[in-house]
Design brief:
Layout lengths: L14 H15 L3 E6 L7 E6 L5 E6 L3 H5 L4 H4 L5 E6 L13 E5 L4 E5 L8 H23 L8
Length: about 160
């Protein structure tokens, strides 16, 4: 099977998805694995979650505009599901809106750069184990669906 058959067709990406792609590329350069649109628990969906080589967990929220940021009223709930929390924005975003105690990543569709590293707040061991297991399960299921898009349809 050729790699191109594993890549979805050229559907346009939303601005937040473009930022997430650049962030995910950068995280890979840092030795981290990432998943987009990850649900740590019912009612929450983070834009990007990353798992580092030492088991560290980062959550990155991608904001494409001032309105996108100001309408996000769930982000503080994400803090309980990571060791470090970041905002990813493009170079034109008014970064003074973002809380100073959170991380900052400047991104585009091709790459990203960490501008501000937040303080690490270690997750409890039980929660870390739960997130890592869910991360692995979600990643495996997504890979399976790439290889077999009709999986689970009961053909």
């Amino acid at each position: 099977m050729q790699i191109s058959s594993l890549v979805p067709n050229d559907t346009p990406m939303a601005p937040g998805q473009i930022l997430a792609r650049g962030v995910s590329r950068h995280l890979r350069h840092l030795g981290m694995a990432s998943l987009e649109e990850f649900v740590p628990t019912r009612g929450l969906r983070v834009d990007v979650i990353a798992l580092g080589p030492k088991g560290e967990i980062w959550v990155i929220e991608c904001k494409s505009s001032r309105m996108d940021f100001q309408s996000d009223n769930k982000w503080q709930g994400y803090l309980d599901w990571c060791d470090r929390f970041f905002w990813a924005v493009d170079g034109d975003f008014p970064t003074e809106l973002l809380p100073d105690d959170t991380g900052l990543i400047i991104a585009d569709g091709y790459d990203a750069e960490v501008q501000r590293m937040p303080e690490e707040v270690k997750l409890a061991a039980a929660r870390r184990k739960k997130i890592i297991q869910k991360f692995a399960t979600d990643a495996a299921r997504r890979l399976h669906l790439l290889r077999d898009p009709r999986a689970g349809q009961g053909f």
